Structures are given as structure tokens and as C-alpha cells.
Amino acid sequence: MKFADLIQRLQHSRSRLSEGLGRVIGRASEAPVDLAALEALLLGADLGVGVVNPIMVKVRAMLDAAPVRGEAARQKVREAVRAVLLERLVPCQVPLNIGTAKPYVIMLLGVNGSGKTTTAAKLAERYCRAGRRVVLGAADTFRAAAVEQLQVWGARIGAEVIAQPPGSDPAAVAFDTVQAGLARGADLVCLDTAGRLHTKSNLMEELKKIVRVIGKAHPGAPHERLLVLDATVGQNGLAQARHFHEAVGVTGLAVTKLDGTAKGGILVAIAQELQVPIRWIGVGESAEDLVDFDAKQFVDALLGENAG
Q1: What digits encode the pLDDT tens for the residues 35-74?
Q2: d(Cα 86, Cα 299) in Å, to the nearest integer?
């Protein structure tokens, strides 16, 4: 995706953060930096206290060392914000490498409505286009529409879909899917799972069971436990990420629906909290809108094209 397109897709978050900086940091030559308003703006952008605090420390140190006002202050504060965001995000810019494991098993996790099924299908389409053989597993057996949705995608992109009747044991579907991947010589298995409340211990135990069953079918799998988070939920996404990570050990993140929210800063808060790779961000409905995460492009898009 071109950088100009990414800027457009992140317009809501950019408006809150970049334009907000312009409002709280006066352009007039004598206007001082309103530190309280700046802190409130950053917290309102869902960056999280763990990110906002070091930004404010850096800004205060900068102003103490070389007091500036107006446009010069605005630029300095932008530089401070950008530096801290990059410090948090660059270490999390780790593309997924499916390596030599065959099949490489990706298990998608998340609550209802986060975009797991669509993300599984988009990943399958991406790898099918690259000439890889993909098997999809419809282990969300509690929502009939999820199975049908995956089957439609599979028929469209040429990926086999393993499914059982609604209400079947999701661990059994997972086992069958991995077995099918092994038998077909597939390169990749994408396993969709049922959405679940992260606060329900019995549902999280079921996820652990699926992980164990997959490991018995294919030692070392699932190779990627991909947590799909809906950016529109803001700080609640951080709580979700924490619970899923504690339950099954999240190895990667896909953050969806960033094009429809002003809460894009939550991605930084989650990176600060979990420090796991951010694989993809979702900025639209098409397969091309599931974009490899690029920390510098993301930060520049949030702060405006000429940020930093």
C-alpha cells in the first residue's frame, strides 16, 4: 500500500493526534506549550499511560534545556512524540516468516467481532497468490455464518476448507484441519476459532485444549498464535490482549479496523504492554487492505506526512 493511501486510511486517528497537537501547541511566536492539554490529548488518543509518561518526560526535559514557543515548540514536541512512538513500535515490526515447517499453522484468536474470520481469509488469499497451498479450518463451530463465510472465501481463492456441523467440538475441527494439511502437503494452515470473552475462564481453557490437540497432530504447532484485535474498542483491546497472552502465549498481532476509528494509538499501548510482533494492520475490507506493519510509516501517518 502506498504511503499516501495509508495516511488516508488512518485519517481519523491522524486527525485526533496530529491536528490535536496543532491545537494544544500554539502557532503564535509567544504561545507557550500547554503541558496539561498535551498530556490529555495523548491519553485521549489511547496511547496509554505507559507511553504518555515518557513522552511528557522528554517534552519537559526538552523545554527545560531550550525553552521555545510557537511553531518551534510545536515541531520540537512532534519530534519528542515521534521518537517515543518509534522506540515502542520498531522492535515490534517483525514480519511473519513461515519458515520450513510444513504445514505452518496459524491459529487465530480474539473476541467476537474482532475480524478473525476475515483476517484468516485475507491471509489465505495472500499466500495462495504467492503460490502456496493453503488449508483453512473452520473451528468457529458456534457461529454457523463463520463456517459459511470461510467456505465462500475458500471457493473464491482456491483454498480447501475443513469444516464440521455447527456445534461440533472445535478441537476436533482443528485436529482434522492440521491432519488435512499434512496429508495434502500444504504450506500453510489457517485455523479460525470461535470468538470468546477473554474474561470467561472456561472458554479460555477451551483455547488451551485446541493448542494441545494441534500440537499432538503436528509437533511444534501452532507455530503462530495470532491475536486479532479490533482497534475501535480502544483500551479494552489492551485488556483482551493481556488475557489472551496469559492464556495461550500470543506470538503475533493483527490489529483491524484502523480505518474506522480515532483510537489508532491503542496499537502503541499494546506494543508497550505485550512487546510481541505486530504482523499486520487492517485498514479496509479488501485483501490488499491487510498491510504488513511498518512502524515508521504508521507513526508518520499518525503525525502527518511530514512529521519528524
Answers
A1: 898 999 999 888 889 899 999 999 989 888 877 776 777 7
A2: 7
Q: Is 105 in contact with 178 (CB distance < 8 Å)?
A: yes
Contact (Cβ atoms closer than 8 angstroms) between residue 247 and residue 204: yes
What residues have CB less than 8 Å from 47, skipping those under 6 apart? Answer: 55, 85, 265, 266, 268, 269
Q: Which three cell numbers stand for residue 230?
A: 479490533
- Calculate ∠ Cα 85-91-93, nearest 5°: 95
Neighbours of 95 (CB within 10 A): 12
Residue 262: what are its φ and ψ, rounded to 5°? -95, 10
Residues written for the chain: 308
Higher pLDDT, 281 or 5: 281
Looking at residue 29, what DSSP letter applies? T
Full-model pTM: 0.90
* Residue scoring higher pLDDT (220 or 69): 220
CA proximity to 119, closest of 210, 177, 195, 192: 192
Q: Which residues contact 292 (CB under 8 A, 6 or more apart)?
A: 95, 279, 280
> Residue 31: what pLDDT?
63
pLDDT in tens, 238-249: 888 888 998 899
Q: Cis before residue 54, ω within 30 degrees of 0? A: no
Distance CA 209, CA 225 (A): 14
Side-chain half-sphere CA neighbours of 91 within 13 A: 12
- Burial status of residue 36 (CB atoms within 10 A of its CB: 0-12, 13-18, 19 or more): exposed
What order do you get walking across the sheet with 134-139 strand by strand? 160-162, 134-139, 188-193, 104-109, 224-230, 252-256, 278-282, 290-292
224 CB-near residues (< 8 Å, 6+ apart): 96, 104, 105, 106, 107, 251, 252
